[in-house]
Design goal:
The protein is built from 16 helices and 15 strands. By secondary structure, it is of the alpha/beta class. The protein has 3 domains: 16-130 and 206-273, Rossmann fold; 311-406, Four Helix Bundle (Hemerythrin (Met), subunit A) (Up-down Bundle); 413-463, no CATH class. Bound molecules: zinc ion (ZN).
Length: 464
């Protein structure tokens, strides 16, 4: 496997800390609002990475956190009058529902920040002891000047980047950041700690949770791959790396991977710009699998400009896979073709080269159709072709639906019931040899935009 390490800025050969085992951490959402397309893309990218490593034979442990304590959550509590628990449990559930719809596998470990406070407090204490942190009025800051390698990760500590960090005259250095925020008033959300009531800063969460839940005992602060959106590179990941270096004397991750932005109509999608595009809204219009396939089709390091035209052409590509699956309806899969599997893994093993992988899929679909045109009864080949499609399900998370159901998408439940009723009526008419009525029903369905096919598995239907 080759991986582009964003810290080294080059493609590297992947060698895990332990042979055949891989630990991956991806920064999860702050749960104060619904997931947007940026979350969806990042989730899908690291879901693909995880699936590819599993397909290559690694035993993968994947962790993604939920930031369930944060200024934005507290603001929402004040606005809504709801408790922290009510808000965060709602948005955690919503996030998981959206990601399920996009075919993202659940993480092996999904820790919440509020359940890992002890690990954060321990790390802050060790930073204080080592002189890498300082207290000011109940707050605790990380002293970036104490980390000789600060900025070595992102190399983005230029004045412009630093100017985006909230200025605070109390800090020793402009890049210093809060490890612990002391309780400000009785309305604040506070937890007890040896340094007084307060709550953790955002960055300490990831370092502490990695140490607590994911790292191996012999490298207690380090994992194989740390991932996230490119917007997290600085300051978030830089700060995570600095804390871990100072607290443990280890690099947090052996490889860093960052996915590109999702833009809409050329403008960077960001909450602050107020043009966020919620996954739930996209899911009202498009099926989750189509969205997944679309978000997956652009190489993860490139920015993706979300637009209808590309989405529709992506759908057409997926349609072709399902059309082939429909031709193979009822066929039991045998073994996936070796060359197909190898070509896919070679492409994806090269820093997730999705364009190459999808061209392998396109080629397979084209050739399979040609072969079936020539010889529709090739039994063994049909079984292999079905196995290939099934393999796409485990590797890319696509093509797993029933082929007929796929082409029924966008039809509401009431219409579906009506269609099923008409199909039953036709069946009865055929049974009693009333072929005129059976034909009339077929025509009625055609008028509704529905085509029916009689197969050995019964009558099936799809949108024309
Ligand atoms: Zn993080």
């Amino acid at each position: 496997m080759k991986i582009f390490d964003s810290s080294k800025k080059r493609v590297c050969d992947f060698k895990p800390l332990k042979e055949k085992r891989v630990t991956i951490y991806a920064c999860g959402p702050t749960v104060y609002d619904d997931a947007h397309l940026g979350h969806a893309r990042s989730s899908i990218v690291f879901d693909l990475l995880r699936r590819v490593l599993m397909a290559l034979g690694y035993e993968v442990t994947f962790m993604k956190n939920f930031t369930d304590i944060d200024d934005k959550i507290i603001k929402k509590m004040r606005q809504s009058g709801k408790s922290l628990e009510e808000i965060t449990s709602h948005y955690i559930r919503r996030y998981l529902e959206d990601m399920d719809a996009l075919g993202v596998l659940r993480a092996d470990i999904e820790p919440k920040a509020t359940e890992s406070l002890e690990a954060m407090i321990d790390m802050i204490e060790s930073l204080l002891k080592k002189g890498c942190a300082y207290k000011i009025d109940g707050d605790i800051y990380f002293d970036t000047s104490k980390d000789g390698r600060y900025c070595s990760l992102s190399q983005r500590c230029d004045e412009e980047s630093l100017s985006r960090i909230e200025p605070n005259p109390k800090k020793r250095n402009p890049a210093d950041f809060a490890l612990w925020k002391g309780c400000k008033d009785e309305k604040d959300v506070c937890f007890d700690s040896p340094f007084g009531p307060g709550r953790p800063g955002w960055h300490i969460e990831c370092s502490a949770m990695i140490k607590k839940h994911l790292a191996y005992p012999d490298t207690p602060c380090q994992i194989d791959i740390h991932g996230g959106g490119a917007d997290l590179f600085f300051p978030h990941h830089e700060n995570e790396a600095a804390q871990t270096r100072c607290a443990c004397g280890q690099e947090l991750a052996c490889y860093w991977m960052h996915n590109g932005f999702v833009t809409i109509s050329g403008e960077k999608m960001s909450k602050s710009l107020g043009n966020s595009f919620f996954v739930k809204d996209a899911l009202k219009v498009y099926d989750g699998e189509i969205l997944r396939f679309y978000l997956l089709s652009t190489h993860y390091r490139q920015n993706l400009n979300f637009n209808e035209e590309d989405l529709l052409s992506s759908k057409k590509r997926l349609d072709k896979i399902y059309r082939l699956k429909k031709r193979l309806y009822g066929v039991k899969p045998s073994q996936v073709q070796k060359e197909f599997k190898e070509a896919l893994l070679e492409a994806l093993g090269n820093d997730l080269n999705i364009s190459k992988a999808l061209s392998v899929v396109d080629e397979f679909v084209k050739e399979a159709n040609e072969r079936l045109d020539k010889n529709p009864k090739e039994k063994e080949f049909k079984k292999e072709a079905m196995a290939n499609i099934e393999y796409l399900g485990s590797l890319l998370g696509i093509g797993q639906k029933d082929a007929y159901e796929y082409f029924q998408m966008g039809i509401d439940d009431e219409t579906k019931k009506r269609i099923e009723a008409l199909i039953n009526e036709r069946k009865e008419a055929k049974k009693s040899k009333d072929f005129n009525k059976a034909d009339a029903i077929r025509e009625e369905l055609r008028q509704m935009g529905i085509a029916i096919m009689d197969t050995p598995q019964g009558t099936v239907w799809e949108k024309i």
